[in-house]
Amino acid sequence: MAKSDAHLEQRKPMGQRIRDFMVDYGRQWELQSMILPGVIFMIIFCYIPIYGLTIAFKNYTVIDTLDTAPWVGLENFKIILSDKYFWDSVVNTLGISFLKLLIGFVIPIVLAIMIFEVGHTRFKKIVQTVSYLPHFLSWIVLGGMLITWFSTTGMFNQLLLDLGVISQPHNIMLDAGKYWWIATLSDIWKEAGWGTILYLAIMSKIDPTYYEAAKIDGASRLRQIWNITIPNMKMIISLNLILTISGLLGSNLDQTLVLMNSQNRARAEVINSYVYRMGMTQGDFSYATAVGLGVSIVSVILLVTANKVTSKLNDNQSVL
């Protein structure tokens, strides 16, 4: 809908707009009815639970209800600001998330371009299948593999011993200083292949005559990628960047719970696992909810900011 049409629509009386909506719905009731299960699901599991956020401003216990728990105002948020362990989890979350952003955001783009450039169809399908496979394995499975590989007698230590890189094996998963890299690289290993799907879908719709014209003009393959492929992927890259930035405070909980142990906890504890531990393990539901609410607010701010910045870079065209 054009801006002028949207403006005229807003000037209509509310009753007229409701009648127009009902007329449009009646014309497409078969298609419109298909979304009702999804709408009902969102109302039950996404909107109704919002009322539970009130316990962030209460002193809630398991013997209370949402209505009977006493109000404490911003007391839980004051505790958060002075909680050393919370700020440690923030540092770990941002450290791991920034590594995933700097490395993990670029690799799916590069991998997608490499797959797209492969001319042999059978080999291309094999590469896609192999790169997709880790996505379908749970972190329980992948975490168990990593713990086994990085153990003292594991494959990784044996390889380093054979190459003469180390003289004594050690359990890498117990080394807190290496955890950020383990979390980042293992997440890339799991999701990089799956992340290429959208990029490959966009590249498959690029008009091949662009490449033919570039070849006639003498453009190399790298020049074609830089001037044709990447510009046509600009919008989907911007969208993924916005979503990635908005999720900087939401590190993978499943990954953390599997890979974290008592030795690397100082560098492995992220906000999500801290909220889980405070809420489910220690039963401090009000405090955990306050942390989660604060993180959600910051994530929304990051989302809006990233959208504004990317729209400026895309000639004021928003992708959201």
UniProtKB/TrEMBL annotation:
It is found in: Cell membrane. It comes from Paenibacillus vini. CDD domains: TM_PBP2. The chain crosses the membrane at residues 35-57, 94-116, 136-159, 179-202, 235-253, 285-304. Belongs to the binding-protein-dependent transport system permease family. It comes from the Bacteria. Keywords: Cell membrane, Membrane, Transmembrane, Transmembrane helix, Transport. This is ABC transporter permease. Residues 90-306 form the ABC transmembrane type-1 domain. It is a multi-pass membrane protein.
